[in-house]
Amino acid sequence: MEFVIHLVLVLHFLALAAILGGWIAQRTGGHALSSMVWGARAQLLIGLLLVGLNEMNGEALNHMKVGVKLLVMLGVLAAAEIANARARKGQPRPALVDAAAGLTVLNVLVATLW
User: Over the stretch 18-72, which tens digit does the pLDDT of each residue have?
Assistant: First the structure.
């Protein structure tokens, strides 16, 4: 079970890389907003899967921390989805892209420093 949890954690980190990599591409003039959106979707689902796997494995989880991370992740997903919808309409979106990246970094800080 530990191997499966670690494998899913690697997928969670790859989704994180997709969000931040998409943000860097956006800031340098690229068009990688879809990688941010899919990374945010994947990170939310994989994070929920990680919580379930750790609960099944008998780990003692800090549910307050999990709840805070879930709320921040929903903010990341909302910002990325709205920015993507605005991009399809040709509207500006840099503040939302920056918000998604900033909230992603906040989620990493909560995960590591709490």
Answer: 999 999 998 888 777 899 999 999 999 999 999 999 999 999 999 999 999 999 9
Closest CA to 99 of 75, 63, 66: 75
Tokens of 98: 């920056």
User: The pTM is what?
Assistant: 0.91
Task: In whole angstroms, give the CA distance from residue 114 to residue 29.
Answer: 35
Tell me the C-alpha to C-alpha distance, in Å, between residue 93 and each of 17, 25, 27, 41, 59. 20, 14, 11, 19, 40
Domain ranges of the chain: 2-113
Residue 102: both structure tokens together: 């900033």
